[in-house]
UniProtKB/TrEMBL annotation:
<dbReference type="GO" id="GO:0005524">
    <property type="term" value="F:ATP binding"/>
</dbReference>
<keyword id="KW-0436">Ligase</keyword>
<dbReference type="GO" id="GO:0006164">
    <property type="term" value="P:purine nucleotide biosynthetic process"/>
</dbReference>
<keyword id="KW-0067">ATP-binding</keyword>
<keyword id="KW-0808">Transferase</keyword>
<dbReference type="GO" id="GO:0016874">
    <property type="term" value="F:ligase activity"/>
</dbReference>
<dbReference type="InterPro" id="IPR003135">
    <property type="entry name" value="ATP-grasp_carboxylate-amine"/>
</dbReference>
<feature type="domain" description="ATP-grasp">
    <location>
        <begin position="96"/>
        <end position="289"/>
    </location>
</feature>
<dbReference type="Pfam" id="PF02222">
    <property type="entry name" value="ATP-grasp"/>
</dbReference>
<dbReference type="GO" id="GO:0005829">
    <property type="term" value="C:cytosol"/>
</dbReference>
<dbReference type="GO" id="GO:0046872">
    <property type="term" value="F:metal ion binding"/>
</dbReference>
<dbReference type="InterPro" id="IPR013815">
    <property type="entry name" value="ATP_grasp_subdomain_1"/>
</dbReference>
<dbReference type="GO" id="GO:0016740">
    <property type="term" value="F:transferase activity"/>
</dbReference>
<keyword id="KW-0658">Purine biosynthesis</keyword>
<keyword id="KW-0547">Nucleotide-binding</keyword>
<protein>
    <submittedName>
        <fullName>Formate-dependent phosphoribosylglycinamide formyltransferase</fullName>
    </submittedName>
</protein>
<dbReference type="InterPro" id="IPR011761">
    <property type="entry name" value="ATP-grasp"/>
</dbReference>
Length: 357
């Protein structure tokens, strides 16, 4: 477990997670004056750790019973709440809440717990279909299945990412865009009431199920934008917690379909570090703390995600020579971010920079 490093006596925040999202979230809380700790519940917590907030940043790093015990022992406020964690723990909980409780438009779907069930579910939704793990990020473990012969490999791919829970089977539709709406819920200083803010939509592109590119803003029609924000408002309102949500949607013309929601910053939202006045991590910390929100877009931008990139100094120099381009090296990938006067210009620059690696 690592400590954020602020003066003793300040309010403590425990950020549950081990990856870059958790680390960046902790830094955002430190910047607001909190004493932030990063780790998991399997770590030995310091005896004097009494967090006023416990922020869950990764689905794989918590157990609901352990979270309940921590809340009872310390009086900490969980973000998201236990109920929100239950809803968003896996795709089945999210999808049933969205489609069956809220009536949000979704692709046809089924859930399978065995290979035999997978075959029946795929037949029910029809081919082509998409097989997804119960929990994943960045599209890991997802497979587009065109025929029954492909189901066995799709099952293995999903189970390699997450061996427990129900595998999702979703009807594949030829949509125009996949978009993510970063949605913030905090206290509106003008009214003192909980309110919702929407960042400009983030377009995403996947290859073989893996996230490879994101750009902001994504060009949506006025009707599609209204539908997207309505869906984002309804699902985040149902979950109810303050903070940032990553709401994933499919867009086909003016029609918008709900896909998934995560009550935390996401890999898709990494683009906001280049495009927004306040990025997704600072938005999350502000929203959780009930502070004012600013979702202003300051420039169009694009990010390319390069897996397992080991970048030598010469390659780094070539990448950084591309106009308005920066690099962030993570443990399992590199993020190449570019900005420009237009989204097309930013995407072209990011693509040109990746070609230099």
């Amino acid at each position: 477990m690592t400590q954020g490093g602020t003066e003793q006596g300040t309010e403590q925040v425990l950020v549950l997670g081990t990856g870059p999202v958790a680390q960046s979230t902790a830094t955002a809380f430190v910047d607001l004056g909190f004493d932030a700790w990063v780790g998991t519940l399997t770590n030995q917590l310091p005896d004097d750790l009494r967090p006023v907030l416990t922020v869950v940043c990764e689905n794989s790093d918590f157990d609901l019973d352990e979270l309940a015990e921590l809340q009872e022992a310390t009086g900490t406020q969980l973000v998201p709440s236990l109920d929100a964690c239950r809803i968003t723990r896996d795709r089945e909980g999210v999808r049933r809440t969205a489609a069956e409780e809220l009536g949000l438009p979704t692709m046809a779907y089924e859930f399978a717990r065995t290979p035999d069930e997978l075959a029946r579910c795929a037949e029910a939704v029809g081919f082509p279909c998409v097989v997804k793990p119960p929990v994943s990020s960045g599209g890991k473990g997802q497979t587009v299945v065109h025929a029954p012969a492909d189901l066995a490999q799709a099952w293995r791919s999903a189970r390699e990412v997450n061996p427990e829970g129900a595998v999702a089977v979703e009807r594949y539709v030829d949509f125009d865009y996949e978009v993510t709406i970063i949605t913030a819920r905090s206290i509106d200083p003008a009214t003192g009431q909980l309110a919702t803010w929407f960042c400009e939509p983030i377009g995403t592109r996947h290859e073989a199920g893996r996230l490879v590119e994101a750009w902001q803003p994504a060009p949506l029609s006025e009707a599609a934008m209204d539908n997207a924000r309505s869906i984002a408002a309804r699902i985040t309102g149902k979950i109810g917690a303050q903070g940032v949500y990553s709401v994933e949607l499919f867009v086909a013309g003016d029609d918008v379909y709900f896909s998934d929601v995560n009550p935390r910053p996401s890999l898709d939202g990494m683009i906001t570090r280049a495009t927004q006045r306040v990025d997704q991590f600072d938005l999350h910390a502000r929203a959780v703390a009930g502070l004012p929100i600013d979702v202003t877009l300051v420039t169009p931008g694009a990010t390319r995600f390069v897996p397992a990139a080991a970048i030598d100094r010469e390659s780094m120099a070539r990448v950084l020579a591309v106009e308005e381009t920066g690099v962030q090296v993570l443990p399992d990938m590199a993020l190449v971010r570019s900005t420009g006067d237009t989204v097309d210009e930013a995407r072209e620059r990011a693509g040109r920079a990746v070609a230099e690696l």
